[in-house]
Amino acid sequence: MTATARKVFDDMARAGVAVDTHVCNDMLHVRLKVGDAARAKALMTRMDAAGMPLDGFSFNTVIMLYIRKSRWGARVSRRTSVTVIIFELSA
User: Fold this and answer.
1) Could you tell me the superkingdom of the organism this chain comes from (predicted)?
2) Is the pTM for the entire model greater than 0.85?
3) Where are the domains of the chain?
């Protein structure tokens, strides 16, 4: 899944298709699904450096990824929806 998504992402950029926040958010979601926190963080850093707006979905996806990768496990995961809702309301 990751290799295919990455290839599509790279092909779009090479073809001159505008890689915007929505496209990057899709790639962040792929990183969430496979648990790749390092590459998700690197993508967010590149988005920010390129002046691309990071939205609630961007932050919530990466927050969810780090929570899933945390030591706290399921206990924290049960609170994730509350955390995400609070984040969206304050953004």
Assistant:
1) Eukaryota
2) no
3) 2-90
